[in-house]
Amino acid sequence: MLKRISTSQIELGMFVHKLEGSWFSHPFWKSRFLLESPDILDTLRNSALDAVIIDIEKGCDVAPEPRPVAKAAPLASLQGRTAFRSAAARPNRAAKPPVMFAGTQPTSGPVPITREFGNARLTAGKARKVISKVFLEARLGKSPKIAEVEPVVEDIYGSIQRNPFAFSGLMRCKSDQEVAYRHSLSVSAMMVSLARQMKLTPLETREAGMAGLLMNIGVAQIDVDLNANQGKFDKIDPELLFRHTSIGYDLLKACDEIPHSVARVALNHHEVMDGKGFPQGLVGDEIDLFSRMAAVCDTYDHLLCGAYDGTGMDPAAAVTRLQADKSRYDSNILERFIETVGVYPIGTFVELESGRVAMVVDQDPAAPDMPTVRAFYSLERRRHVTAETIALSVCYGSDAIKGIASLEGLELPDAAQLREKLLTAAIRSAR
Is 107 inside a domain boundary? Predict the structure, then answer.
């Protein structure tokens, strides 16, 4: 049951269903959450919101008006009834046994990655429809509506809050996605994760996510089919590629609701620190913060997909490439980005000390160089072996990563298909 209350009536334990008012009036956008933090409570009470909609079936109700003194119940009795009613209004939050990889502890967040993949798939499915519509309308010269794209960013933000690696891992290991759609969602998710790692505010984090989602919207108006050429830049007229930045900026700027910080990324995400980017050749701090972040996230995703030379790179190799080209990127942002994706990001194929090839399927933020892997192939026997999921950070030295694995000559499926197969198997084995 929904109830509309003023900000002065908000209390801890309430479930916020909707925040009424301009999203500039608060740092949470229109998210739904159980109010458990005193800091967030103070922020909401001091905001310029018109009102707050709460769901009393999922959280606490407004405290009842005190009864007249003559008819008042004893204080202890009243407190008991209020406590009982408040407890009954809250959702059943009893902790369920965590879903985890066999023989391991969940390592990557408050929700195990195996559980969050289901939510990530649902989020990606809904987002695909929205992004397809936004790009189609952009082709017709229509600016995106913030009411359409805001829920996509909010869903991605929510998924990353629950587990920082699941959504991006899904994007890395799905082989049946349209190029423009997958790239937009991947960059959006990386921008959100990077913003969180940089300790940006919730509002800035969501703006960064929206910037990543929409920065390539100008591509919709240039005469090129990204899916037909599999997103490879070498098959795109350089002049058309150059123009998509200003086209995208004009489309986003025409929508009054979209912050200028978001529109500016469409124009500047190909600018780099050494001044060799385009369209303006900006140098260093002349480039806005979100665009410096986008330059790293955008390049990393293109390296994985083979946009530059037609050959998709292993995620760990792509990290190494970024480090080799560090003069092009903000050094602090690049460092935070590597912390975000891990030394061996999900989807990386590694060679283990045991002589097996494995794929990274989860991360341990406390040990970024010791992820969870799925071992599946013996280099000595030159054949598949019984798959095993190993959390290297808690395997007590029984195995370790020797280096990035080369799949050349191993008679294995296409790397993209192999990633999807291995990740799916790892998730199923943990159920």
Answer: no
